[in-house]
Amino acid sequence: MHSPEPAKHKELRSALRAIKNHVEGLEAHELDYSQLAAQRINVSPMELDEKSSARPCFFKPCPAHLLMVPDDEYDQKSRTKYQEFKSVHPIFRRPIDCARNMITYYSHFWFDCAIHSENYILDGLWRRLSLMAVPFEDLFECNEPEFGTPELVKAKRGRESPPMKAMVYNNLDGNENTLLRGEVVIALRVINGQMRRSRFFEHSTVPVLLFSFLGPQHARVIEAYFDGSSVVMRPLRLFDLREKDQTLIRTFAQWFLGEPTGETRVLRGV
């Protein structure tokens, strides 16, 4: 039997939902930091470095030695090959095409690392969620410019905690000092959906780590959470994926496969 939703948690959901509904109604597809601040969305920098004070607040990387090496030998044996930008016919270089190609490669590599890790340790941390059922059925936008979430994962049973991770594509080029409306909307919808689940009514904070793939074959990672009054979004700088970078592929894998951390039963900073 599920416990009733505490009044404070309901207030948090209502405040978050108001921000989500307003952003969903915006006509702009790219928002600078001042425009985001006007929507009660505060942006601060992030680094994928455990020793940095700007590291993710709610996620940590897995040990690098548990990962495979995405070299030419791996690609020859893999179900998918890394497509460098220059090798792709110009007609298939739309941001959405490149983003989907990268998501296909990265997701296969991360899956291979998980199932081949020592004692399957990485395969026991995260589980894919259905994107066809409530509360995560609204993570795709088919109107131009398209955006969507083909991969959404949560902690496996026995390790239940609210942090989530998602792979996101956008049919737009990315720029520094702006975020795409699609990135913001997906973060808000994922957080809102997780907060609706009764098993997390005791948690005030629901963090999500977005792996955002956009044009022209670039990517960034964004940590997002609601602090009770505003949404905090912490983007990494944009990385150029037009040429294969084994170190970057492994770094992204460490953070996608790593465990959640931090206190989520209270609002951050409280």
Model description:
This protein has 270 residues and is an alpha+beta fold. It has one domain (7-257). 29% of the residues lie in helices and 21% in strands. The chain has six helices and eleven strands. The strands form two sheets. Strands 2, 3, 4, 5, 6, 8, 9, 10 and 11 form a nine-stranded mixed sheet that branches. The chain has a two-stranded antiparallel ribbon with strand order 1-7. A hairpin with a 2-residue loop joins β8 and β9 (218-226). α1 (7-24) packs antiparallel against α5 and α4 (95-115) crosses α6 (246-257). The protein is globular and about 55 Å long.
Brief write-up:
This protein is of the alpha+beta class and 270 residues long. It has 6 helices and 11 strands.
Based on the model shown, name its key terms.
single chain, 270 residues, alpha+beta, nine-stranded mixed β-sheet
Structural class per helix/strand content? alpha+beta
Summarize the biggest pleated sheet.
Answer: 9 strands, mixed
What is the straight-line distance between the termini? Answer: 30 Å
Helix/strand order: HEHEHHEEEEEHEEEEH
Q: Uncertain regions: pLDDT < 50 for 5+ in a row? A: none
* Average pLDDT metric: 93
Put simply, the count of helices is 6
The proportion of strand residues reads 15-25%
- Roughly what percent helix? 25-40%
Query: Which radius of gyration do the C-alpha atoms yield?
Result: 18 Å
Q: Based on Cα principal axes, name the global outline.
A: globular
Query: How many domains is the backbone divided into?
Result: 1
Total strands: the figure is 11
